[in-house]
Each structure stands twice: as C-alpha cells, then as structure tokens.
Here is the input.
Amino acid sequence: MKAVVFDIGNVLVRWEPHRAFTPDLGSHDAAEAFMARTGFMARNLRADAGESFADLATEISDPDDRALFARYVGRYRDTVPEAIEGSWALMERLRGRGLQIHAITNWSAETWPHGVAVHPRLETAFGVTVISGHERVLKPDPRIFALLCERTGLDAADCLFIDDSPKNIAGARAFGMQAEHFTTAGALEAALAARGLL
Here is the structure.
C-alpha cells in the first residue's frame, strides 16, 4: 500500500445542504421538504458533474422555489460548517507513516472555492485532488479513479480508498483499489489498524 485516497464530503468535512435554506424556510423540516420537492440531491449531483446551479434552477417551475434554489451557491459556506477532526487526525497519522495522501471528491466546480474558503486545509492537504466538477465525471465512474492513478503514477492496487458512499466504495473496488466504507472516525481508525497502516 502506497497511498490513501480520501473522499471529502462527510468524511473530512460535514456537508449539511439544508442549512442553505433554513434561513428562508424557518426549520430543518421545511428545508428538507423544499429539497425533496425540488429534487435537490439529484440536481446537486448534476452540478457535481459540471452543470451550473443557475441552469439547474431554471428547470424548477415554482418561482419561489426556483429563486431559493438559485441562492444555494451564495450560501454554500453555511452548508460545510465543520471539519471532522478525527478523520483529519487519522490522515496526518497515515502521512506520518510515509503514505501518500490524495483525494477524489464529487464536488461542484462552483462551490469548491467556497468550501476551500471555509476549510483552507483542503487546498494543501492532498498530493493530488480530483474534483468531479472540474473533470465532468462522477464517482463511481471508473474514469475518475483512472484520473487519480494517471496523475499520481500509482496503480489501482497501490491505493486504499475511503468514502461514505457504498456505491463509490463498490466502484473503487471494481476499479482495483482496496476500499473502506467510512461511518465514523473511530471505526475508520480500527479498520486502518487492522490493515497494519496505523
């Protein structure tokens, strides 16, 4: 094992998109209902694949919902309120053991700069960072794992991939990487120790 490749959202940084909408709607439940009726998660994934939030907003028929959805990028900082410090600590321990640290993230090109503004470590923590919105390809498409390998010079088998999505974990394994499904920093620590990496 030469490298550990991290997902970022909900592995290193908490992502809580409802926080962009609660100031207007008044409650977490109302924000969740808005996200459901506007198909927010599916549209957000399209943004992660390279589409703009402004274009996605035009597809929403209700004018109030459309206007609120269009405010998302401007409020993005509110949706990534905190780092998951236990995961960052594990990452630094892995780095201290001589492992390369890289990242592959499904993240919009529009919102990435706002995330970095809140969490500046994202800009310097990784040897190579593959951002789906820049590449216009999403995990678990094998092309995104191939990009990481091309840019690092690593073989898939050299890499351990960590992600909170079972679908992305399955994609990484199908590509030839080893993988661990992230649930908590404590569980990840135990899994890394069992692999002899800590």
Q: What stands out?
A: The chain has a mean pLDDT of 98. The first strand starts at residue 3 and ends at 6. The chain is about 45% helix and 10% strand. Strands lie at 3-6, 100-105, 129-131, 159-163, 178-181.
